[in-house]
Amino acid sequence: METVKEYFGCNVFDDREMKANLPAKVYQSLKKTIDEGATLDVSVANIVAEAMKEWALKKGATHYTHWFQPLTGITAEKHDSFISPSPDGGVIMEFSGKELIKGEPDASSFPTGGIRATFEARGYTTWDPTSYAFIKGKTLCIPTAFCAYGGQALDKKTPLLRSMEALNTQALRILRLFGNDTAKRVTSSVGPEQEYFLITKEMYDKRLDLRMSGRTLFGAKAPKGQEMDDHYFGIIKPRVQAYMEELNRELWKLGILAKTEHNEVAPSQHELAPIYTTTNVGTDHNQLTMEIMQKIALKHGLVCLLHEKPFAGVNGSGKHNNWSISTDEGQNLLSPGATPYENAQFLLFLCAVIKAVDDYQDLLRLSVATAGNDHRLGANEAPPAVVSMFLGDELQGVLDAIENDTPYAGAEKTKIQLGVDVLPLFSRDTTDRNRTSPFAFTGNKFEFRMLGSSNSIACANIMLNAAVAESLKIYADRLEGVGDFETALHEMIKKTIKDHKRIMFNGNGYDDAWIAEAEKRGLSNYKTTADCMPHLLDEKNVKMLTSHKVFTIEEMQSRTEIMLENYCKSVTIEANTMIQMAKTQIIPAIEKYAMDVAAGANTKKQLNSSIACGYESSLVSKLSEYSDQAYVQTAELEKAVAELSEAKDIIEESAMIRDIVLPKMEALRSSCDAAEELTAKSYWPFPTYSDLLFGV
Ligand code: ADP
Ligand code: MG
Fold first, then answer.
1. Which atom from ligand 1 is nearest to the alpha carbon of 428?
2. 193: which of 42, 146, 273, 368 fits an S-S bond (Cβ 3.0–4.6 Å)?
């Protein structure tokens, strides 16, 4: 059997393959494009395409596709075969530079939020050479950006690449101020920790709610949940182990650095974390990871649930976005340095993040907003919907000392003079203790913990990169050409700490007292997608994102529309699923059971009229009460869904979803769940929470 080292990346046209299969000159030219963003020559593209094709054919590929990330949040691909007819009646296998660089999928069915009317079906995809092409099945996949004919981005990759560019530009300005003339590029990196549930396919198939919406819309709690804390880091069951092994193998073949795997808090919940890479590649890899997780699960008779809240009453699934920025020379800009000068630079980058998170807390919040994630945030299992930052005691101590010009205990009781004192190295131990913070410093990176498990990480990283670019721009504008650099720097860091103190919170983020305190501090608390999404179009947000050319105003309008549409559509699907399940499965089951119990009582009475049948009578009354309630609530929910068509726009519709539809769904669920607890198991029409959560 091949070793991991031998097969790692075998399905990727990576640097090793490029080097081996391209003429040296072409390789260098392509490398320059990849590393420095230089534009690619068409003649180069032709040679690359030919080499890529030959490599792919050797691997058994027959097709190629431009692989892209439309605003559906998942990936899209349309396969074209390499064949081209030859005059002798046979075929030759062809792939040109033009086909590599540009594709024109019929884009009319992808969400555009009004950017392009569907009759103008044309959109185009363009090759992103910074993310390697790979083979999936028999298809060569070329990572691409997806735009409308007018150039407006219709995907998540384009703005992500733009945000990386903005961050690079501004960060390099800062580095030059600190005398670094050699770094050529600054890149943001990400390592997303992915949580998921595994349940059996057999049970999954029996639940319409899981199949339609990815989560259980009904279900009384199992007698046992996660209260024993026995699942987290627990022994991995053989069936799950076999799944993880095959998953790793497939991910490694695709060059995805799957690293850590363990059981999570809830029963049947697990986590997979890769080693970090650039935010662009990391995003592509996370999309692929989610796809492959689901595919491999099926091979093992399992279903991988990526929904944020598949089960009520136990933890949902999130995705921790570990994020940092570093230079092409390997310097992590969020790592405290060894010299006083490096420390000053570190503090400036740290402050840029603090300022960014405070100024654009709304953007961070809305970058993770989906109907699914609304169930997690603030539910005492994930950070609240309020964005705050955790720095750890040591680092907080340093910032406090700078702000107040007071001595810092850690640095020999002296006042901190930037550029003179050496800061302590912040170990993971002191920075990683707070697991309740939405945005925590973890020694040399930040961990943004609000993302939902099914979210594309693109959105969060777009906002992070852009907001930090904006802070850095403000700093660079102030510092470039200033007479006394060190004093100006010190003052600016001090001012940032003073101005943005409110965003820093080192206590328990799950505590209600914090929510009250956060409100006093003026931090925003957008509980639902409907609340936060419209703020994408707030003037300050439009100004910042357009000035860094991350989005055009038109793209921002379309995204607001699409995200709200997604929210409304997914909840509407859930509501319709509930209506169908209640009408055709749950109420009939309750009725059948009640009738059988009643019939039993009658039989008993016929045998002996003095038997009181108190149990039967009370049970049948309760069951009938619940089925009546459920019947009425179903009708009310149907009415609420029908009334959505009267909303004058998507904002109003999303408010109706939040205020009317969701509460009615809750009400219907609670009657049905109560009935489930009284109904004999053999009558219940689908697997219960105990079956699902403890079935693997
Ligand atoms: P945990 O948060 O569960 O304790 P780790 O701290 O070991 O786990 O790592 C979490 C993730 O952070 C991993 O995916 C790791 O690759 C990633 N990571 C480490 N350094 C960086 C960095 N400089 N930039 C982005 N991600 C990073
Ligand atoms: Mg983590």
1. 6
2. 273
